[in-house]
Amino acid sequence: AVNQPSISEFRSEGDRHTATVHFTTDGTYQLSTNYTDLASNVASSYEGEQFVIDLIEPKIEIQGIKDQSAYKDELKPVITFTDKNYDTSLVSLTVTGSNNGSMSLDRLNAVKSVIDNGEQYVIEFPKNSSIDDLYTLTATISDKAGNETPVTRKVSCDSTAPTISFSRPYSYSV
Q1: Which pLDDT score, from 0 to 100, does residue 130 have?
Q2: How far apart are the first and last CA of the chain?
Q3: Which of 3, 61, 142, 149 could form a Cys-Cys staple with 25, CB 3.0–4.6 A?
Q4: DSSP string, 63-88
Q5: Which of 55, 54, 73 is closest to 64 using CA atoms?
Q6: Contact 6, 21 (CB under 8 A)
Q7: pTM for the model
Q8: What are 153-174's pLDDT values in tens digits?
Q9: CA-to-CA distance for 11 and 4, rounded, in angstroms?
Q10: How far is it, in rounded angstroms, from Cα 29 to Cα 51?
Q11: Hey, CA dihedral for 9, 14, 29, 80, is it positive or negative?
Q12: Which 3 state secondary structure label does DSSP give 123?
């Protein structure tokens, strides 16, 4: 059962009468009014269009990577965006390397799929030394009510094995 909105007392200024309706629960609503004055005059009724109240922030879930971690083999984050009133135009996903700069999702083999109330991105960083870098993954989702959820992860992609070299010490005689 949906909680019904509450209404304030009416305030009157001459022929103008105003009340405030408070919505505390997500839902689809429609406002309608009818009025009869003290002389039994009936005003035209009003039937408004439906509207949505959305108080819950949208969600972002990132799996497959940990913030501030390094990966040498598979770097394959899965980013899931969800919201009850999902709008794909209110989603942003960027990957920026310290050296490589802004990376296109195509270059990172990103695959997008539609899920219930959202979208899911699977990014598979190529195993290639030219991709090695420190990356910032930034995911942001907003909803139509203006609620916004930002999430940032920093990861290192390092597929190149370290090399160690020794040089022969110099000998000194005294």
Answers
A1: 86
A2: 94
A3: 3
A4: ES--TTEEESS----EEEEE-TT--G
A5: 73
A6: yes
A7: 0.74
A8: 999 998 777 778 777 776 667 6
A9: 21
A10: 5
A11: negative
A12: coil
Three-state DSSP state, 89: helix
* Element holding 22 (H helix, E strand): strand 21-22
pLDDT digits (tens, 9 = 90+) for 106-140: 999 999 999 999 999 999 998 888 889 999 999 99
* Count of CA atoms in the C-beta half-sphere (13 A) of 86: 17
Q: Specify whether the backbone of 50 is left (phi greater than 0), alpha (psi in -120 to 50) or beta.
A: beta
Q: Dump pLDDT digits (tens) for 56-89.
A: 999 999 999 999 999 988 899 999 999 988 999 9
Question: What single-letter amino acid sits at 170?
Answer: Y
Q: Are 95 and 137 in contact (CB under 8 A)?
A: yes
Which one-letter amino acid corresponds to residue 171?
A: S
What is the pLDDT at residue 142? 95
Query: How far is it, in rounded angstroms, from Cα 151 to Cα 79?
Result: 10
Are 138 and 154 within 8 A, CB to CB?
Answer: no
- Least Cα distance to 117 among 80, 79, 78, 84 occurs for 84
Burial of 38 (0-12, 13-18, 19+ CB in 10 A): exposed
